[in-house]
Hints:
It is built from 11 helices and 13 strands. It is of the alpha/beta class. It has one domain: Alkaline Phosphatase, subunit A, CATH 3.40.720.10. The strands form 2 sheets. Strands 1, 2, 3, 4, 5, 6, 7, 8 and 9 form a 9-stranded mixed β-sheet that branches. A hairpin with a 6-residue loop joins β10 (347-351) and β11. α6 (174-183) packs parallel to α7 (221-246). The longest helix is centred in the middle third of the chain and has 26 residues, at 221-246. The termini are far apart.
Amino acid sequence: xxxxxxxxxxxxxxxxxxxxxxxxxxxxxxxxxxxxxxxxxxxxxxxxxxxxxxxxxxxxxxxxxxxxxxxxxxxxxxxxxxxxxxxxxxxxxxxxxxxxxxxxxxxxxxxxxxxxxxxxxxxxxxxxxxxxxxxxxxxxxxxxxxxxxxxxxxxxxxxxxxxxxxxxxxxxxxxxxxxxxxxxxxxxxxxxxxxxxxxxxxxxxxxxxxxxxxxxxxxxxxxxxxxxxxxxxxxxxxxxxxxxxxxxxxxxxxxxxxxxxxxxxxxxxxxxxxxxxxxxxxxxxxxxxxxxxxxxxxxxxxxxxxxxxxxxxxxxxxxxxxxxxxxxxxxxxxxxxxxxxxxxxxxxxxxxxxxxxxxxxxxxxxxxxxxxxxxxxxxxxxxxxxxxxxxxxxxxxxxxxxxxxxxxxxxxxxxxxxxxxxxxxxxxxxxxxxxxxxxxxxxxxxxxxxx
Length: 451
């Protein structure tokens, strides 16, 4: 460990020296009095839930779909309204792991198929922690984060799910990825671990479990099936936690759960059925939960936050050197308690998924959505995307447009600025392209990412 020599030279007491050497030992800190993160000793786990719509989960007011997430919220901090910076996996996870907009890194482009990749110029969380002396272990069940797309950057070991979860459907159970990651955690070094799980993603295989979420708890069969699949994802998160407990490292680990995007579910109807093309709260509002040393239990952070905030927040919590190009804010001070508000006044999201070319801006009370592409017929039976502004307080499902020319102009200016950033990146480094093999292409098709 990098800090061990410094600790010995400093001549600390025997007790403190034992603490530094034995970073896998369970914490004896009493409940309600969180210990502090010890850089070079405290571990980090980032668990990304694919298709994790906040209002359908238990800690965000949904039914009993995710009891483990509810427990995690009770034992740690819950960010009240975290918004995805893009409504589909590759672009959203780019912001999660790098703290930068996908547009700025040229991971977004219209009508490009699926060949965009995370460029080498992005600085990932794994790279930041590895530079700080951590072992880095990662895995993905979503092919959008496969090695061919550059998401192995910074990892000593990186697993990508292969094969079929069941006949004809390219879905890998989260426990498969988790077991590989757990098996590769080091026994003598602090670690950064990251997983991306797709248990809640369509296609659904809920079986009899969906019956528990029928009327009066669920208005449609689709929502009932989705809620049952959330249960599978929740149990996968718990499986990861139990693995840390079994290894005796759970109490010395900052454990993060964050969503990559939500899901429309036709709930309400104009939000569409899935994700990728729409920018309503159903697609953007995702859970963000943190438990661990230095994190107050039962703490709720109000106000807006965004996926871009994760990298600077973990960096602040662990004292990492700042990474270049970070767009989010360090919210680590809010993890210590007091139920404070982030004070965030603007969150931007955009999507270039398939033929979409759209962006949105959210404030605590209002939002504006804009389609930057020429008018066209909606795909299949999907409702048309509406350009306009909304009063989120009076109209939380964003059904009726209002006039807000100033906020809409902010959105146009933001998009213009970041399209220019993308153009400058491409001019300097070229398009970050991937050559996709048949296995990854089939997996993308099985999850609906390729038409």
